[in-house]
């Protein structure tokens, strides 16, 4: 049943460009889709390991800058007259390199920060994002600083036997974002349903019990951070090649807050949660803008979030899933049962 619902949802989303002719709404859907991918990557940490990263936008921005600089090329001076010169590469190479670089940064942050917990971890992630933002702002020779990197080329996908398919139009970019979102969703779904996924949930639900059955805390959390950062880097790359201009404002804290809202409202720890929350809070400003002043829009935005959190404290998707289970006469599994059943006798 879940597979059928997923396939129907993908088919419905794939049909949107065939009947939607409003370029403004198409642009909103594309940018919302990109941030949904970022929210899905954040959910892997927040929803399945219980680690709140308020610097997640750093990986998004690192992916954007890596992909942009790879496709634009650069010439920077180091150690006096010595220069590092990089000739432009195809944008598709920048996309994959963005995933690798963001993942490596996730490994670095994970190894350093997962030795602490709680508020200390949050502070480390915020500090990392701020450091990266300052580097992008002040390393003018490489990033152009506040002047921004512009004329970033569109992603071109090589087709065997044909010319490259250049993603210039909103039509093309919509399907590109949808394809990456589906791949990210499938990857995360397979991951959280694997033995490694059970280990992540075990650490979130009962770290002492997880350690007692042989789960390596630092290794598990670091690997989750690497995968999460890599997916966020892919989203950043899509953003850079779609918008075609980026500046240090891409590291703005509001972007992380947006991803957190998408995850929490939709339901952290659920695969569909970031998608549902992302569609609601990504598209809400679009529909409020014609009928409300900017100040009223923010009030309505916050009001809807508060109502959701009060009425559906688990998030939209988990709350409705529990309601459907009760209507079918199925008792929902209490929190912590997944780990207790699957991992208590199975060492990692």
UniProtKB/TrEMBL annotation:
InterPro entries reported in the protein's UniProt record: ABC_transp_permease, LivM-like
Protein name, entry field: Amino acid/amide ABC transporter membrane protein 2, HAAT family
Source organism (scientific name): Bradyrhizobium erythrophlei
Disordered: region residues: 329-348
Pfam families named among the record's database cross-references: BPD_transp_2 (PF02653)
Subcellular location: Cell membrane
Membrane disposition: Multi-pass membrane protein
Keyword annotations of the record: Cell membrane, Membrane, Transmembrane, Transmembrane helix
Transmembrane domains' residue ranges: 24-45, 57-80, 92-110, 119-140, 174-192, 221-239, 245-264, 271-292, 298-317
CDD domains: TM_PBP1_LivM_like
Any single Gene Ontology cellular-component annotation: plasma membrane
Upper lineage: Bacteria, Pseudomonadati, Pseudomonadota, Alphaproteobacteria, Hyphomicrobiales
GO molecular function: branched-chain amino acid transmembrane transporter activity
